[in-house]
Structure formats: C-alpha cells, structure tokens
Amino acid sequence: MQTLREIASRRELFVNLTLRELRSKYKRSVLGWAWSMLNPLTTLLIYATVFGIFLRVEPDVGDPSGLKNFAMFLMCGLLPYTFLANGLNAGMTSLIGNANLVQKVYFPREILVGATVASWLVSFLIELGVLALVLAFFGNIVVPWVPVVLLLVVLQTMFVTGIALALAGAAVYFRDLQHLLGLVLQVWLYSAPIVYPVALVEGEVGTSGWKITLYNLNPLTRFVEAYRDAFYHLRLPPLDDLAYLVGVSVAVLLAGWWAFSRLEGRLAEEL
Questions:
Q1: For 204-239, how does the pLDDT look when each residue is reduced to its tens digit (9 = 90+)?
Q2: Are 245 and 222 in contact (CB under 8 A)?
Q3: Which range, 15-24, 50-59, 185-194, 262-271, has the best average confidence (pLDDT)?
Q4: How far, in Å, CA of 214 to CA of 128, rounded?
Q5: How many other C-beta atoms are found inside a 10 Å radius of the C-beta of residue 33?
Q6: If you ran DSSP here, which 8-state letter would residue 59 be given?
Q7: 84-119 residue pLDDT tens
Q8: What is the largest CA-CA distance in the chain?
Q9: By C-alpha distance, which of 174, 203, 166 is closest to 88?
Q10: Residue 107: closest CA among 5, 13, 1
Q11: How far is CA 175 from CA 92, 93, 168, 218, 245, in A?
C-alpha cells in the first residue's frame, strides 16, 4: 500500500514520462505518427497475402455479424498481439535505457515501466479506433461493444505491465533476455489463433482433451478471441473467458510487481 501511495503521488511524473516516450518514439521522423499506422498496415498486407491468398486460410463467418473478410479477421487478432510484443520489448529495456535517471534520482522505478507500456497503449487505442472505422465501412458497427473493448484493453494492459515489470527487473541482471524474448514472441504469435481460426486447431486435436485444454489456457488465445468477438462477430465474449482473463491479468500483474520488488534493491548498482 505504501508503494501504491508513492506511485499515486508521482502521477505527474508518470504523465511526463509517458509524454516523453510518445514524443521520442518518432522524433525527427518525416512521417512521424503516420508510422503507427503504416507499420501494422504493412504487417497486415504481408500476412493477408501469405495466409489469405497463397495459403488460402478461410476466416470464420461473423456470428451474428455475417462478415467474412480475412483482412479484418486477421487485424482483430494482430493488433492485440502487436501491443503485447511492443509493450514487452519496450518495457523490458525501459530501465536499461534510462540508467542515468535511475542512478541519479529516486522515484518508484515501476513508473518507468508503466510509462513505457502506456506510450504503446496510446498507439494501440489509435489503431483500434482505425479498425473500428474500417469495420464500419464493411457494415460492422462496433459502437455498442465499446465498453467490452475498453474492458479488454484494461485487462491486457495489466497483463502486459505485469510481464514487463518482471522482465525489466530481470533484464538488468541478465541481458540475454532481450534476445530470448524475440524468440518467445515468435512462438507466441503462432500459438494463438491470430493468422488462423480456432476451427483449424480443433479439427486437428478435437474439441476435448488435454491438447485443446492446454491451447485454450494460453492467455493470448483468450484475448484474441475476445477482441474478435467484439469487433468481428459483434457479440459478447463468453463470460468464462472474461472471468479467466480477469483472473490471469490480476495474477500476472501482482506476480510481476512482486518479482520487480525482489530485484529492485540493486538495480542502480547493476546499471
């Protein structure tokens, strides 16, 4: 509770650090914030071409929306994954990149990690807004499901922040984590139904048994399916999925915070 009160008292510092991250993200770039749109659009074009045209992956038909569009199906899963990947990569190096600040000034170090994740959260919200506008062009009006989307964004931010806290503290002592995370994120991308529907997995391993249970325990699978329910299908995600995401997000945030506090003692010396 003391740490929470201290962080709350430094909320102005949190806002300023977040704004600094936002300003420095595309500093001296000709296109500036346009890159926040061009990067996901380029990724979408590549995946849509490879999986939608060459491999001919069939997307689900929206139920009850009736939408059948692979690019939109893909984007509903790709944006949450991109936020996860960017938040973890940037959050993990937030302490290392601000070593001088950590060594010279005392403040709750969690603020650095939180501000970094928050800067990517802003980009994520902009991307979701663009996705909602594009879906409206195809007839999918997402407005009634905005509260569900905002709940999912809050839960995913907690999830990403928890992992980022643990990684940020550990990366100061073990620099190889920066390279290991890239491999883990590659595996995580294909372990969730982002570029393919869940039906493909169920067709291979069945709808019951330990394999599909293990697959569904992947938090990214639940996040992707929940976002897809709200954006693509225009329906409420299953309540058991939402309950699972609430439990996992809170547990990961608390575990990450605990791990960070255990590693925080010698951060300045190690940096």
A1: 887 788 889 999 999 999 999 999 999 999 999 999
A2: yes
A3: 185-194
A4: 29
A5: 14
A6: P
A7: 999 999 999 988 888 787 777 777 788 889 999 999
A8: 58
A9: 166
A10: 13
A11: 10, 9, 10, 26, 30
Contacts (Cβ under 8 Å, ≥6 apart) of 98: 112
Report residue 242 as tokens: 């939402």
pTM, two decimals, is 0.91
CA-CA distances (angstroms) from residue 159 to 77, 130, 181, 214, 251?
16, 23, 16, 19, 8
Distances (CA, A) of 78 to 12, 202, 226, 271: 32, 21, 13, 34
Q: Which two tokens stand for residue 197?
A: 């529907």
Cα distance between residue 27 and residue 50, in whole Å: 33
- pLDDT at res. 165: 94
| Rg (alpha carbons) of the chain, rounded to whole number | 19
Q: How many CB atoms lie within 10 A of CB 240?
A: 9
